[in-house]
Amino acid sequence: MQLKTYATQFLQKNNIDFVFILLLGVVATFTLDKINPIFIFSLMIVQGFVLFRPDEKVNFKTNTYFWLLMALYGLNIVGMLYTDNYSKGFNTITRQISFVLFPLFYSVYRVKNIGLLLKFYVIAVFGFILAFELHTLYRFFYKSDIFPLDLELFFSYRYTGAELTKLFEMHNAYFGMYIMFSHVIILDYLSRTKKYYAIILLLLLIAFQSLFLLQMVAKTAIILNALLILCSLAYILIKRKLFAILAFSVVLLVASGWFASQHLNLSVSRITDRMMELQKGDGSQEETRARMWSAAIPVIKENYLIGTGTGDVKKALHAEFGKQNISIRSNVHNQYLDYLMRFGIIGLGLFLAVFAYSLIHAIKTNNYIYFCFTIIIMVCCFTENILSRQWGITFFATFNYLLYYQYQKK
What are phi and psi of 167, to 5 degrees? Predict the structure, then answer.
């Protein structure tokens, strides 16, 4: 009985209700593409029952940004009017329903402990990193058919890149995005905490997770993560006059750089190769992103105003791939080009307006977390169709309107 009373008091003190617990489940399972939709569905159903109780007063609030997001999703519905492949179009509409559900949810449900939500997310990301590393170590020590078992073998292609996240078949570009946002949350907390031991531990956590990014070979995430951490950390520590911590950070950076150069040279070489491929452009003989982007140009020119429609992009793009001797049959790996092909200049303009509105709001409200979140999404959209797969859709939808509408910088 006493334990039950203590638990009730704890939940009330931290503003935790059943709906909030389901939201915690959502932010903790982005990596699990089979389980995450269950939490989202349960969250919306439970909140729906709460809203329609006889004694519940619905306080539905919207703003300009809310309707901008609704218009962005509405492009999919409008695009169905002139698409040929209704099956693909309907699949896109249903996959991106989170773009509508979460703004609606946050318009009626007030998250009273966003700090706890963000901390829980950081813990979940760290938990997945440990799980991936332990699973990789298990495969290395007990499943390896190559000897001797040394560091060179462990950091070879057999245990890095996609092989590192094999436990849940997680795409490294998306998990890299999760790690970067985790670092932004950590840096925000680091800018406020007065406990030196906490700062040291958080810096060690960032270093460990950054080395994991290198091991995972998430190329875009590695480069952007380095820029975000170096710029943010230098600004925070100098502003707070924590010069001893700054010196420790420099030592930690040098040590991490040395370790990466000695043992993670495969990851470094892949980043270098990617940069060289981009410099060659569509003249490269490899099936690079630059060649895929080039193949999208004829599709865009044929339908530059309103695009091909919601469901016809893949067919038109793959036809161009065939003409340019590109054998892979994936998407264009660029969200901006995807919107341009799918919805034309009008669609791309609306897509960019969403980001512009986010950045302006983040700057006006001095919202470091939301500003970096938007930058992360924008940069990742250059190399992946981030908002075309569940891993990216739910991540963006869960945090975007919450950080815009409810998160206030203290």
Answer: -55, -45
Least Cα distance to 161 among 149, 173, 152, 151 occurs for 173
CB-facing half-sphere around the CA of 179: CA atoms within 13 A:
35
The token pair at 106 is 């946050």
What whole-number distance in Å separates Cα of residue 410 and Cα of residue 407? 9
3-state DSSP of 39-68: HHHHHHHHHHHHHCCCCCCCCCCCCHHHHH
**Does 219 share its domain with 354?**
no
| Domain match, 247 and 311 both | no
Contacts of 164 (CB under 8 A, 6+ apart): 132, 133, 136, 172, 212, 215, 216
Domain that holds residue 32: 1-58
Q: Centre a 10 Å sphere on the Cβ of residue 239 and count the other Cβ atoms it contains.
A: 9
Helix, strand, or coil here: 34?
Answer: coil
* Whether residue 148 has a cis bond before it, omega within 30° of 0: yes
pLDDT at 11 over 80: no
42-99 pLDDT per residue, tens:
999 998 887 776 666 777 888 999 999 999 999 999 999 999 999 999 999 999 999 9
Of the residues 265, 286, 307, which one is the last residue of a structural domain? 286
The conformation of residue 97, written as its DSSP 8-state character, comes to T
C-alpha angle with apex 32: 229 to 163, nearest 5 degrees? 70
- Identify the domain boundary among 270, 286, 302: 286
Our count of domains for the chain comes to 3
Q: With the C-alpha atoms ordered 272, 278, 282, 287, is the resulting torsion angle positive or negative?
A: positive
pTM beyond 0.70, yes or no:
yes
